[in-house]
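Entry for 2'-O-acetyl adenosine-5-diphosphoribose complex. Fields follow.
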Amino acid sequence: MAIDMEIPEEVRRRLGAARRVVAFTGAGVSKESGLDTFRDAGGVWQQVRPEEMATPEAFRRHPGRVWRWYAARYRRAAGARPNPAHRALARWETLFPSFTLVTQNVDGLHQRAGSRETLELHGTIAWARCHSCGRRREMGEAVRESPEEPPACACGGLFRPAVVWFGELLPEEVLARASEAAARADLFVSVGTSATVYPAAGLIELAHRAGACLIEVNPEPTPFSRLAALRLAAAAGEALPRLTEEIETCRRSTT
Ligand code: OAD
């Protein structure tokens, strides 16, 4: 399906002039790498109930079950490859004077596509950390050593994936930096997220209130679609390379 890239003149002007840009991504950006989203048909939260797998209480009750499920997710993420959407966003670092990539994803695909700094709001599956003392070790090594049960830490606690679970706080400094970038952004591009999980989704509203031009890339509408100056209703792997070309054209004609 051809993407409708008809970009209003005012948005072209904003793309050409943008100085402080934020891209905010969700599971949809990794869909074309073969990783499931959470809330689409057949998505992760239709396969398991989040309260049985992604909460501290679930880990306390069934540490082995939770560990094995995350071990499988780790292996899938490690075996996946970045797609053209991740690669396009890695290039955005060179397109604007200031660029901040904020992701809700834990799969590490932005970094593997070449993004140098990524604010991971929901942590990362590349690392495990002790649920008691916070010590960290590589998830791959932990899973190889102990595929069935969470390995024990020297402190006596258990290792868990270094992701944020429901009922837990987001990493404070990461959220602070993401909020600051959103509040200062003149262009904010939301990609592949249902924009329903807070506080992450609040960044969109923060940027919009501060006057950013909002672009949404998602085949389906979201609660924030009505605020978007431009909506690209297409898969990220197709839309982002095209949008990147348009941005380059707009910036060449501005300078
Ligand atoms: P969701 O599963 O809620 O939303 C994925 C979005 O991606 C949907 O709006 C889809 O329409 C869209 N989508 C699907 N395929 C796409 C494609 N090829 N290109 C672009 N968009 C596509 O995932 P998130 O919004 O990331 O948190 O979910 C947010 C948080 O909820 C996750 O970080 C996770 C989850 O519970 C935690 O685990 C803490």
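NOTE: Residues 116 and 204 are 22 Å apart (CA to CA).
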